[in-house]
Amino acid sequence: MRPATRPASRGDLVPSAVLGLLGTRGPTSRADVARALGVSPATITQVTKELIARGLVAELETAKSQGGRPGRLLGLVHTAGGAIGVKVTADHLAIVDAKLDGTVTTSSVRPFDPDAPDALDRLAGAIGKAVADHGGNLLGVGVGIPGSVDAQASGVVTAPTLGWSEARVGDVLRAALGVPVLVENDVNTLAVAEALYGAGREHSTYVVVTIGRGIGCGIIVDGSVFRGAAGGAGEIGHIPVEPDDGPVCRCGSRGCLEALVGEAALLRQGRDAGILSGGQGVRDLRAAADAGDDRARDIFTRAGRLLGRTLAGVVHTVDPEIVVLLGEGIDAWPHWRRGFEESFRAHLMPSRRSVPVVTEPWADDRWALGAAALVLASPLDAEGVSGEQGDLVRARLHVTDGDAS
Length: 405
Prior knowledge:
- The protein is α/β, with parallel strands linked by helices.
- The protein has helices spanning 13-25, 30-37, 41-53, 119-133, 169-177, 186-197, 257-261, 263-272, 282-290, 294-318, 333-346, 366-376, 387-397; strands at 28-29, 57-62, 72-76, 82-88, 92-99, 104-111, 138-145, 148-149, 156-159, 164-168, 181-185, 206-211, 215-221, 224-225, 322-326, 357-359.
- Mean pLDDT is 89; it is low at 1-11 and 401-405.
């Protein structure tokens, strides 16, 4: 279970964290809020009194008690804020407008060319329209990018798949939009979203692994994203699996995990096996496996076996409480599982073999919601990962709807 979060030194964090917790978890008792945030019940009593007086929080029905006086649940009077989330890819943008509880109110996809000379200005223009259309109190914009990001607050990006090297995404967007902007590796955004809405709500150390076009990994340690020295931690898709005679990876090395089990690799294997024609995709490969084609099933089984062996090493390194699998390729997981489970458990030390692995369903807007979660999680950021942009988000969270500009 998730241990209490270490309290932050910033005095504004507790009331913001209370609002963020109620927004993402729904009605909660004062005692449970205190436990979740790792602060004293007396502090929560005083903070909630002020929030109730400001009309942001209300007492709801009485909660069941294990003995003693029943407590009352606290809930948001209204949506205290929302966020725009953006997922940047090599050919399109996915943009969502999300409430504090993670509800997506609008979702859109538009073409995007990262190679264009004015790509960042076009990105700002696309997000600017979503900002203008937002109703209510906009807390900020979160952007998920498939690459390394130096820090969420500064947002300097190196993303080979986009052709970007040290692109100052954060500076450009903040200047154009006039709202807080947080930028992060896209898989890390999913790991943050898990802390708010998924399996991470009950765990403090876990890994999120995505399968699809590539293989990615977000690492949460003691409730915070583990980013590494330059923001590039979690690149498990480039762990060498068959370095001597494996296929060339897009990173330039041979035999990386992604070069063997990513979408392009599965399609290549499907064509080589005579299962797919030139115009068919991974859905056709899955359909063949669903229909009982042993050649297609063998491709997925081998992919699962390689992924399992690699993730065993990740588990030994990180020691997570749980592993979460998701991504565009998760719908074919029943076929991956045949090779994965046996290989994964067999390569774990006996003391780690019981680590749970869960899969979660995938929706096209999940990446963008993960980006929005960067903003929505800022009130709970006791480690200061979001920097000064997180401070600006928290300041906006205290603004009532009537005061919002």
